[in-house]
Amino acid sequence: MGTTPTTPRTSERAPERSPEPPVPAAPPPAARRTTRRAARSRFSPRTRKTVLLLHVITSMTWLGLDIGLLMLSVTGFVSDDPVTRRTAYLSMNMIGDTLLVPASLLALATGVLLGIGTPWGLVRYRWVLTKLVVTIITATLTIFALRDGLHEAAAGVLADPPSPGEAGVGLLAAPLVSLTCYIGMTALSVFKPWGRTRWGRRPAASA
What we know:
Layout: H1 29-40, H2 45-78, H3 82-117, H4 126-157, H5 167-191, H6 198-206
């Protein structure tokens, strides 16, 4: 008795599914931090760059003037030539009266604007707060202490005999202290150490 051959049943095809949209990868932590900072910034990118440029220019001007004062003070202190000594201290007095005060105040003002208008703030991070305090102290000493020494030395070299007196020693130390502060503040801006202050951690804890 013959057998009827059976044809193999074709496998039923599963219904096609539409491909699921790819899940976007989460941005790295650094990108998330940058996005949050950009969202909290009060300045537009153009304004922030303009204020930053002004801050860099005024800060470098302040640093250059301080280096010039240091060189002039050393020249006036070690020189035995009365004309060279008088020229050095009179030049220092002119720089202190006409250039040093505006440069220090503009550097302080643009730094405060950067803190207010950017997510760094003024007291949120320890390195920013340290820079602010050091800048205020340095600018205050420049206006109220260094200029008095410059005036005293200038009056001394115009007297007979010409001598800067005790102000000459102080004018050697003041630019060195200021230069040390500027180098320290520059290092803080580059490395940004120490993390947040308690004021900077408070909004994150309440969110």
